[in-house]
């Protein structure tokens, strides 16, 4: 797995015109910053050898200057226990190669923010589509700027940060646009139109719980592509729940008389349980429900989510 990650980044960097030493460093970084924590230590096992003069002897290349590599992984915190449909993120990246704006739609707890953070981290890495040019902002940041009449200034400062580093397409992520009132939403739309007009390579990734409607169908004469968050598979939902539980699960969690369930896979029982179905496979709901599974909860049959909608609509 580590070799596959290294080769993918290494050869992609070479195809983008990086020199050998930079491509090698990017291959190592792909492993150091990967989502699999168990593989990160494998990065140091990759070495770059050079021929010694005219002989056939190979020696370690000692003068590899990693500081010369101008592109770094985005300094964005990773999402713990992230689960998503990987195919959806690939489809989003393919779309943003040709389209300029994506609006990611999903209910509360559907995983929009987590997906955008992982998307920005992965595709903002060295040699990738948005290499070194990713900015992640909350809608609240724009709302605060609008209150003091400085939305345009705030936006252009963010875009200035994007133009300062990296060699990929610039990507601006704005999360939670549903919090805006109509007037502020329209002000932001006009500001983004100006940005798209001035920066012809700029890409936008927006999120909202609902469609924005009206003039938001197009920005700077380009279609805003609406993408609905895909549901987690039952398998992924079960894995996320198991990782976030505060105690192990047992057959008694699924049936009062658990003798008939002995030997059954806990993960299979969880996938088929009424509790997981009640959570609608929404990552946010699953995480909150799993946090309630501790030593004081004797069985999942008594879980509060089975008798309450509070997890779906927290106050």
Structural features, described:
With 315 residues, the protein is α/β, with parallel strands linked by helices. The chain folds into three domains: 2-51; 86-228, P-loop containing nucleotide triphosphate hydrolases (Rossmann fold); 234-306, no CATH class. Helix content is 39%, strand content 11%. The protein contains eleven helices and eight strands. The chain has helices at 2-15, 20-32, 86-98, 112-123, 139-147, 151-164, 182-198, 234-244, 266-271, 274-278, 283-291, and strands at 49-51, 58-60, 101-105, 134-138, 171-175, 203-208, 218-219, 222-228. The strands form two sheets. Strands 4-5-6-3-8-7 form a six-stranded mixed beta sheet, with helices on both faces. A two-stranded antiparallel sheet has the order 1-2. β1 (49-51) and β2 (58-60) form a beta hairpin. Mean pLDDT is 82; it is low at 57-70 and 309-315.
């Amino acid at each position: 797995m580590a070799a596959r990650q290294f080769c993918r980044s290494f050869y992609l960097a070479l195809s983008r015109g990086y020199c050998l030493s930079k491509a090698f460093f990017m291959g190592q970084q792909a492993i150091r910053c990967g989502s699999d924590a168990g593989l990160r230590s494998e990065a140091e096992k990759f070495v770059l050898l050079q021929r010694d003069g005219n002989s056939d002897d190979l020696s370690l290349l000692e003068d590899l200057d990693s500081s010369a590599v101008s592109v770094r992984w985005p300094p964005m915190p990773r999402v713990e226990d992230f689960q998503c449909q990987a195919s959806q993120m690939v489809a989003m990246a393919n779309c943003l190669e040709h389209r300029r704006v994506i609006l990611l739609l999903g209910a509360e707890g559907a995983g929009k923010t987590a997906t955008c953070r992982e998307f920005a981290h992965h595709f903002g890495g060295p040699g990738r589509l948005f290499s070194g040019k990713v900015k992640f902002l909350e809608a609240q940041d724009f709302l605060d700027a609008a209150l003091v009449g400085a939305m345009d200034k705030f936006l252009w400062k963010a875009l200035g940060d994007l133009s300062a580093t990296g060699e990929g397409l610039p990507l601006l992520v704005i999360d939670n646009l549903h919090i805006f009132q109509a007037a502020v939403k329209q002000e932001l739309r006009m500001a983004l139109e100006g940005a798209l007009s001035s920066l012809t390579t700029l890409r936008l990734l927006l999120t909202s719980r609902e469609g924005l409607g009206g003039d938001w169908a197009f920005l700077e004469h380009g279609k805003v592509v609406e993408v609905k968050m895909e549901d987690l598979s039952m398998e992924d939902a079960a894995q996320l729940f198991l990782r976030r539980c505060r105690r192990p699960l047992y057959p008694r969690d699924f049936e009062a008389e658990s003798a008939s369930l002995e030997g059954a896979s806990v993960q299979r029982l969880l996938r088929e349980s009424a509790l997981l179905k009640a959570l609608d496979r929404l990552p946010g709901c699953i995480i909150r429900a799993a946090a309630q599974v501790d030593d004081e909860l004797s069985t999942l049959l008594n879980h509060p989510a089975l008798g309450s909608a509070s997890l779906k609509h927290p106050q």
